[in-house]
């Protein structure tokens, strides 16, 4: 056949061979990462799901239990209350840092003397480890020796029981979470504010809009995607909160601050009920995924 006909076929064949070689080399590059992901993420979750279907206590033989561990949760009032406390704690731990963080971001976005120093001081709580923060706040919450009750009595107010009363323990723990993680929300929202254009504000000022109207109708809608990112991060972090609660209250008084994480800890490392604890992990993971997907769907709808 003429060379003019064979040349396009030869070129097409070379392209196919090149694509195959590229695909092979591509898989060689991602194979190590895939093995690491499977070993670190997929295998532990598959093993946890397998263990949730077993009846296993440390020191005894393992036997297949099916869905018995999951049915047991529905009859366990302590588990159901732990879920309610987790949602209550998470809601407060998301609401207050978000409100205060957005307000702080708006303030720090303005120019004033020593603004850089003020920002640095404001984000310092976020730099400390949660256990160290919890130990400091535990001393401050002491009914007789704590500095907080000293300040209250000095101001003529009655002392508080803080984490030693079932009615105030979760709001008190939320106060610690708010103090430590409000700077995270502030930094995220501040990044959004720094990227906003100046034209809408100039037009609004020409139309006679005041500061609140500019914030309500310009700043808040434009920065809302950044706020939703902060909401997602804060919600996931609050759902997983363990170290602060464990160190400060230990789930007490009684079980009044026992969240799902602490209940899981008790089942696994106090009662050594590994099968039931694994089932709690699966439900806990589903709860975190549900909350995250709802927030991410909300973010996609507004973007």
Number of helical segments with 4 or more residues: 12
Structural class: mainly alpha
The first-level CATH class of the largest domain is given as Mainly Alpha
The CATH homologous superfamily name of the largest domain equals MetI-like
Please, could you describe this protein's structure?
This protein has 303 residues and is an all-alpha fold. It folds into 2 domains: 3-52; 72-302, MetI-like (MetI-like fold, Orthogonal Bundle). Helix content is 76%, strand content 1%. It has 12 helices and 2 strands; from the N terminus they run H-E-E-H-H-H-H-H-H-H-H-H-H-H. Strands 1-2 form a two-stranded antiparallel sheet. A hairpin with a 7-residue loop joins strand 1 (54-55) and strand 2. The protein is flat. The chain starts with a helix and ends with a helix. The mean pLDDT is 88.
Summary of the model, kept short:
The protein is an all-alpha fold and 303 residues long. The protein is built from 12 helices and 2 strands, in the order H-E-E-H-H-H-H-H-H-H-H-H-H-H.
Keywords:
mainly alpha, MetI-like fold, flat
Topology:
Elements: H1 3-52, E1 54-55, E2 63-64, H2 68-74, H3 77-108, H4 115-127, H5 130-140, H6 147-154, H7 169-194, H8 199-206, H9 211-239, H10 243-248, H11 260-269, H12 274-302
Antiparallel strand pairs: 1-2
Helix pairs in contact: 1-12, 2-12, 3-7, 3-9, 3-11, 4-7, 7-9, 9-12, 11-12
